[in-house]
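Q: Here's a chain of 181 amino acids. Please give me its 3D structure as tokens.
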Amino acid sequence: MRVRYADVDLSHAVLSAPVAVVAHPTPFTYNGSAVSETLLAGPGPQPSHSSRVRVVSAQGVDAAHLVLTDTDLTDCLFSGAFHLDQLRLEGRTTFAPAPTGRHRYGIWPVRFTRRRVLAEEHHWRAHTAGQPALAAGVTPQPRLWRPGPHHPDPDLAPDPEDVAALYRQRHRARRHELAAP
């Protein structure tokens, strides 16, 4: 699938053959001329990444046949997916950053490392930190963890074991990507 200006939800999709979700870098054409994207871009000036393709969920997907290229995985939920170690990420695929700045852990000052994290880690840490849920349309602060869609329900929020399992699978995939010729 070549897409632009899209939020892709792959929740519980059955992939029996290879599937690639690719952010198409240039406007689509029809009969040799570019198709107008003014309605897709929305009102006002748009940043250069406005045609970004966001994958919002891969929950319940067998990712063995899935390739994501140049996609935004900042809010993508992977919990419940199978074979994440075989998921291929190519191009400029982005994950959510950890919060920035200095914080307190009890009485101790803490500085988060600069790293990219899965959305489930954001949701779990926001839940354990007691952060309030965000109102619809509100942009999360970069100094805070981002609450998830089930915040603050502890039965639906991911727990540390879920997050660790997701990172283990992604780590295995990263080792395979680095070992490939």
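Q: Can you summarize the key feature?
A: The two ends are 26 Å apart (CA to CA).
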